[in-house]
Fold this sequence. Notes:
The complex is a heterotetramer.
Chain A: E1 15-24, E2 27-33, H1 37-43, E3 50-51, E4 58-59, E5 72-75, E6 82-86, E7 97-100, H2 126-129, H3 138-148, E8 163-175, H4 179-190, E9 195-198, E10 214-215, E11 218-219, H5 220-233, E12 237-240, E13 243-249, E14 253-259, E15 274-286, E16 290-292, E17 305-307, H6 308-316, E18 325-330, H7 334-344, E19 348-354, H8 361-370, E20 373-376, E21 378-384, E22 391-398, E23 403-412, E24 415-419, E25 422-424, H9 427-431, E26 435-439, E27 444-449, E28 454-456, H10 466-483, E29 522-524, E30 529-530, H11 531-539, H12 545-552, H13 565-576, H14 580-583, E31 595-596, H15 597-601, H16 618-623, E32 626-631, E33 634-640, H17 647-660, E34 663-666, E35 671-676, H18 680-687, E36 700-706, E37 712-722, E38 725-730, H19 735-749, E39 756-759, E40 764-770, H20 774-781, E41 797-802, E42 805-810, E43 819-825, H21 826-840, E44 846-847, H22 850-859, E45 906-913, E46 925-927, E47 940-948, E48 953-961, E49 970-975, E50 980-987, H23 997-1000
Parallel strand pairs in A: 1-7, 8-9, 8-15, 9-12, 15-28, 17-24, 18-19, 18-24, 19-20, 34-44
Antiparallel strand pairs in A: 1-2, 3-4, 5-6, 5-7, 10-11, 13-14, 14-15, 16-25, 21-22, 22-23, 26-27, 29-30, 32-33, 34-40, 35-38, 35-39, 36-37, 37-38, 40-43, 41-42, 42-43, 45-48, 45-50, 46-47, 46-49, 47-48, 49-50
Helix pairs in contact in A: 4-5, 4-10, 6-7, 7-8, 11-12, 11-13, 17-22, 20-21
Chain C: E1 3-6, E2 10-13, E3 18-22, H1 35-43, E4 51-57, E5 65-71, E6 77-81
Antiparallel strand pairs in C: 1-2, 3-4, 4-5, 5-6
Chain D: E1 19-21, E2 31-35, E3 39-45, H1 51-61, E4 72-74, E5 78-84, E6 87-93, H2 99-108, E7 114-117, E8 122-128, H3 132-136, E9 153-159, E10 162-170, E11 173-179, H4 183-194, E12 199-201
The complex binds flavin-adenine dinucleotide (FAD), nicotinamide-adenine-dinucleotide, flavin mononucleotide and zinc ion.
Amino acid sequence: MNGQPFRTAAGGRINRAKPLVFTFNGRIYQGFEGDTLASALLANGVHLVGRSFKYHRPRGILSAGAEEPNALVQVETGARTEPNLRATQIELHEGLTASSQNCWPSVAFDVSAVNGWFSRLIPAGFYYKTFMWPSKWWKAYEHVIRRAAGLGIAPSEPDPDHYEHRFDHADVLVIGGGPTGLMAALAAGRAGARVTVAEERTEWGGALLAGNETIKGKPAADWVGGVVAELSTMKEVMMLSRTTAAAYYDHNMVVLAERVTDHQTSSDLNLPRQRLWQVRANQVVLATGAIERPLVFTNNDRPGVMLASAARAYANQYGVRAGRQAVVFTNNNSAYRAALDLSAAGIDIETVIDVRNEVSPVLLDGLKEAGIGCLTGSVVVGVHGTKRVSSVDVMAFDTTTARPEGKPRRVQCDLLCVSGGWNPTVHLFSQSRGKIRYDDTLAAFVPDVSFQNERSAGTCNGAFQLAACLREGAEAGTEAAVQAGFKCGTAPEPPTVGDELPTALQPLWDVPPPSKFRGKRFVDLQNDVTAPDVALAHCEGYRSVEHLKRYTTLGMGTDQGRISNVNGLAIMAGLRGVAIPTVGTTTFRPPYTPITLGAITGTERGQHFTPIRRSAMYDWHVKAGARFVPAGLWLRAQVYERPGESLMQAIGREAKSVRETVGMVDVSPLGKIDIQGRNAAEFLNRVYINDFKKLPIGRVRYGVMLREDGIVFDDGTTTHIAENHFMMTTTTANAGPVMQHLEYYAHVVWPELDVHLVSVTEEWAGMALAGPASRKLLEAVTDDIDVSNEACPFMAFRTGTIAGAPARLFRISFSGELAYEINVPADYGMDVWQWIMNAGAPLGISPYGTEAMSILRIEKGHVVSGEINGRTTAGDLGFGSMLSTTKDYIGRHSLTRPALNDDGRKQLVGLIPDDGRTAVPRGAQIVANPKRVAPNPMLGEVTSSCYSPNLRHPIALAIVADGRRHHGETLHAVSPVTDEAVKVRVTDPVFIDPEKERLRG
Amino acid sequence: MTRYSIFSLARNAFNNHRDWPAAWRSPEPKAEYDVIIIGGGGHGLATAFYLAEEHGVTNVAVLEKGWLGGGNTGRNTTIVRSNYLLEGNAHFYEKSMKLWETMSQELNFNVMMSHRGVLNLAHSDPQVDAFQRRGNAMRLNGIDAEYLDRNEIQRLVPLLDCSDNTRYPIMGGLLQPRGGTARHDAVAWGYARGADARGVDIIQNCEVTGIKRDDGRVTGVETTRGAIKAKKVGIAVAGHTTQLCQMAGVDVPIESHVLQAMVSEPIKPCLNTVVTSGAAHCYISQSDKGELVFGGDLDGYNSFAQRGNFPIIEHVVASVCALFPAFSRLRLMRTWGGVVDMSMDGSPIIAKTPVDGLYLNGGWCYGGFKATPGSGWVFAHTIAGDRPHALNECFSLERFATGCVLDEKGAGPVPGAH
Amino acid sequence: MLLINCPWCGERTQSEFAYVGDANVVRPDPDTVSDQEWINYIYIRSNPKGVHDELWQHIAGCRCFVKVRRDTVSHEIIGTAAPAGKIDGREA
Amino acid sequence: MDSTLAKKRSALVAAYLPGIYGAIGEDGPGIMLVERCDLNVVHIAGDATDQAFAHAVKTETGCPLPTEANTATVSSECTVLWLAPDRWLVVSARHGEGLLKERFRMSLASGSAALTDVSNGHTVIQISGARVRELLAKGAPIDLHPSVFGPDQCAGTNLLQISVLLHCVETNVFHVYVARGFAQSLWEWLTEGAAEFGYRVDPTD
Lengths: 1001, 418, 92, 205
Ligand SMILES: Cc1cc2nc3c(=O)[nH]c(=O)nc-3n(C[C@H](O)[C@H](O)[C@H](O)COP(=O)(O)OP(=O)(O)OC[C@H]3O[C@@H](n4cnc5c(N)ncnc54)[C@H](O)[C@@H]3O)c2cc1C
Ligand SMILES: NC(=O)c1ccc[n+]([C@@H]2O[C@H](COP(=O)([O-])OP(=O)(O)OC[C@H]3O[C@@H](n4cnc5c(N)ncnc54)[C@H](O)[C@@H]3O)[C@@H](O)[C@H]2O)c1
Ligand SMILES: Cc1cc2nc3c(=O)[nH]c(=O)nc-3n(C[C@H](O)[C@H](O)[C@H](O)COP(=O)(O)O)c2cc1C
Ligand SMILES: [Zn+2]
């Protein structure tokens, strides 16, 4: 650790009273509060930060913001490690650890740098042309290619932090907290609008922080402080710093990503790490600024080549000299400010190289005053030095041939500041569907026609002068407030600023090297795309900007070509001999800068990925040691294992107890729909294939409903509760879809029917009491319902009290046993269940789970989702006789289609293993000859399979071609993926009590 | 056509790669072609390639309104598989899979077909049943399939959360080892280069605006670059199928929906299998460049915008984090959308139409990338011989009226549900 | 993310709604319908590139069905109404 | 048989632990939570333009039928919450249970109105405190600004992925109606989200 040799003696916005210790590549350094990792590294003289994607070239720090393509690092270790962070955005905090990535063994000596020697063999798209022989080797080639690609390393442990979401509704959303954005916020805030302001950086002020402009004759920072203070007092204004507007969606919905605790060493665990905002804004002001463009010349990627604005920011904002001796290379005016500021910070400016022949005398005088030389009409043709700039070669530039001329002159320096002009940050504007246009004066794309309720102001709108920024900001803020319905007179008067010059840019897209000059000219620094790569794409016909991008990977890195795209497409325009707008841009897509998957996920993590739906008896099942199974959002008790029992034994025991004594299962998740209205019966009659008009009050009927295409949709029972009042049950899985289906027909198709639908699934706790002893048990728990077979026959409905709770009793049976379904108001569910369990103990009652329930219904040939699979008809499933011939119902007309009446349709059958022992594999296919080599024609499929503890042999349901005609024949159920095959006999699907004596008894 | 080889690469290296020929010409459209293919996506280009290669029909033009491969071919998650349950689908996609296996060599263009395996995760008993049922059907049809238990899955995909401590614990999975991914753009470029070399005219920036008919028979097309005559016209425009068919007065059971996909920042290899999950509604793989590529359900409403909205992104990302809790700290780098042609039963239509000489290839939903070679192959056969190949007989337009639909999901005539 | 004006509840975000589909679909009279009409009813949707009348259900709110006139390219919503209501403005 | 045996139980029993949690600031907890077990909820459907129906509602509940969307009317014993143009929730303190329903049913019997008891199907969580809107804004996409969503406003919306009915009772007091089966999940989410504001869980009566 030493004293930060490149830190200026004073100045900057860092807190020199608060030194911070951090580690980079294993070495310990010191910086200050207010530093970024990049500024702290530079303060310590560290320029070599990373290695490039393909050639593993040494790379340094190019920028001071979100656009950084080079200085990507891996921070922290273990579960909190994070790859690909931009050193320019990482707020320094005590104990930060960071390291270079994509290099081995070290960033200083990286063996993969040999790729550079072969670079001639591996131009853009080389992999499409090779690695094809021998074809078997591709797997090995790919392995090597994959290992070489990628940047940082993914964590391998679950993320220990938490994240959250927030919704916001703003009259005016201002994006960007520079002078423009602050002015806009002030205008809208004063008008009384609800304003949300989002700024990606820690501090407010944007580009002002990096400069030394004056506002109202004072340092701009004073003005910023005043405005922020005023905004903070406004109740309806919300200021969000460290917050990136990541995405702009339809109807003015903007996604913001806020970094809440990322910058802290140890954080308050009550706070989320990051917060994702979804802002629905009436109006949006985009004040996102502009990003400086680098220039394309030989070895323009060397550490020490830096954007002029970034070098200026390091000097002014962070008190860091990015080098000792600098050269400034520019094609526009803005870099002159940088030259002066760097010089003032104590950097030796060797010279300013300007491609323009004519430069404003004001600027030249300024340089002269500071003792800085200037070479106009000249360019930097190349950089020397590998891990750091050591000197540059300068030549005169012939504008007619667009080539350097004469003799190169070598200038010693360790810092080369470049400025190729500015690209307004139009990303969000484009995402909002705004159309951009190319501005020849600025040589950049600027907003043209807006599509949503949004406007751009300041530099992102192509207004590069501070005075214009302030004015546009004030106007935009005012206009937005007015559009949002606020009355405010005129825009606030923008404050006065110092003198300014126009940018006066002369486009310079590529500095071709003099002949025999070696080295690479990078367009896309992160993805190692060079100017010759663009030329290669051109000569191979990949000339559309989209093909250029995909063939060379230009702009596909983590920086999304933020600083490279315009240079790349300008070079392509030159090659094609067309204007830049003819080439066009690639599509700007969310997110603006990458955001964590954690923030997008928010609280929907782990067990909370989706909400859990619990029945009223859930806690009982937990206490009883149930194993749970997800059924949609519900968690249902699957089986209650007893100590010493295997899973299969437990399931078998439960299923047996129902047939032998009595069992009870929680059926609360079944969908329940309360149907009332004068036309309720007519409605049901149209919904179900069978008749519901003549169902008497106090009776239950089983019903089947189809989709309009004639395929079975759902089944269940419906009870006539009272006059014009029914209750329908649906399968658990279809509870939601059936409700929507019914609502659609009731509201949209048959609005003339008087029918009201209310979901009462949650109102009633449901329990099915089944088994020969169920009546006896029921008698013990009700005083007021006569449950005798005469008073309460099969398919009867009664109300009364059960275990002291008001109850509905349905004499229905899924298990095929004497059975009752009890519904009690859900708040009573737990107690009633417990009470019945207690009362049933002497009879040997057993709770049973979904597994045993499934066995019982398979034994009875009752169908569920395996059979109602969206492809089967009522006829296939044996419901043919239920199809009414006297009325219309949903799906009826489709039933005449020939394929629905084919002879070979697969019909529901039962299967029994021929040997009476071997389980019928779940998911098996049915074939005639298991030995036949593929393709082996399949006659059908096993839809449900189990071991029947009551029959003491395995059984299964299946759908088999023409199955009903093949009862008694043998076929084979084969499951190659589990290596099982069994000879099976085709039977009727009802295995137990086909005469239905048990359930009617 | 300059053959690509390590030698041609080395030779060109000496010239600083200045002498490579264009991968395909950009000719002016001729006045008339034997066959016009509308749509320069993978399917259209493959069709043109196989027309020339297999049927000797070379007086062919592919008309593309934008840039080649800029439709769904250029925006899909590149999953290639043939793990279908229903007969018709199984045989067709398996033919396609076989063509994938030799595509790079056949085209002399490395499409980077990576047979890294496609794993479908089951999170419930019914899903276990369904996957085994499908795996069994595949095996009986001669297609590779393996059923893996949780331990085997954990070994194959170490970062996957295979614990019980998740909302939808993983119970097992169906692996198709030969499934995998391919470099999507290369598929379009490879077929374009191959077709061009065999005489096909590939014409970009040429939008078809009308289909000309005479007496119930196709005679040509109107385009933004003028009218072009043709004896036969094949439509392969994915999301725009309805619009093109309407130009010829043909109604199709298709809706256009937007499907989004996204990539993370590039990272070193950490996921070597394609993983899909029914319960979590997402599919994910890692590209050779290092990004995680993932997607999920449709946005859920008709759309012709190649952009979607946030709810689906949120859901897909949450699903990814549910499966891979370690990925939560990785970052989303780019999202995009494509307009997919959702058919009413979820299966494609590759068929003759009621208009003579007009052929349709569409209804690919979100699964047509893997079909690219097979689709081109059977469509070329259908066009050349004016009758479907046995492999695409089941993909007729008439199946909806007869009821012979191919509904893998059993979702019914709700296009957004497939 | 769409902002849909429920004729009853006012402007609500897309995630509160479920998409139903083409609002022009009318269930034919079962007594007089021809087979072709019936097949079209089940399988053919308007699917325009441009203005589309469609139904959404305000599932998290009033559960009513809402007819929405929306541009399928720009996602702009031209107007909303009850299923049988009229929407002014650009027509499909 | 002892008919008093079965008691009602809240859906939150397992998760409900009165006490003080999270980052309590100088002003005390920013959020107060209490389950309103005392509320009786009835769903009514009917024709809002039918005078007799509106009259019956007014007589039985003391509340004029709210016909303006997303509003509630309040009387000394009842609150009527608008759900849809033809559907409302009548909420009353538990002592009115049964009585209200029966009388009501009779008074509505003539028209096409329908009445469904949904007291058990809903869990009602009362959330109050200075930070209540911030807490709800973590999951609810609707605009909760006091100028838009003030006292006597109600709205069906989502909290996270769960459908809820929000009712603003007083400026900083909300009732959240949630389907019983989701109550515990919602509770866990609410308390996790309230931790940064500091929260108190009050005992139910
Ligand atoms: C996000 C996403 C993920 C997907 N993931 C997968 C996956 O993992 N696996 C998989 O197998 N499939 C996937 N798919 C589906 C797959 O991408 C498509 O089914 C397949 O690429 C379709 O190819 P195509 O050639 O038919 O269509 P496209 O590639 O879309 O080509 C159609 C072309 O027709 C052109 N065109 C349209 N109208 C006209 C006109 N009037 N005149 C001229 N040209 C016209 C279009 O510009 C377009 O280039 C995905 C799709 C998307 C959107
Ligand atoms: N002379 C020149 O050529 C030139 C060029 C550029 C800038 N400037 C000067 O820079 C200043 C620009 O003012 P301005 O306010 O228009 O821009 P600015 O750069 O000062 O402010 C824009 C702010 O928006 C933030 N931002 C950008 N995208 C964002 C996102 N997606 N989410 C959240 N925050 C985001 C940035 O962090 C930045 O702080 C003026 O003083 C101008 O004169 C001059
Ligand atoms: C498989 C696949 C991988 C991709 N990888 C990247 C990537 O690494 N970087 C990137 O910027 N975009 C990547 N994209 C997205 C493209 O940039 C682009 O968004 C997509 O092709 C859709 O085109 P559009 O955005 O121009 O409309 C990828 C796309 C696909 C289909
Ligand atoms: Zn509504």
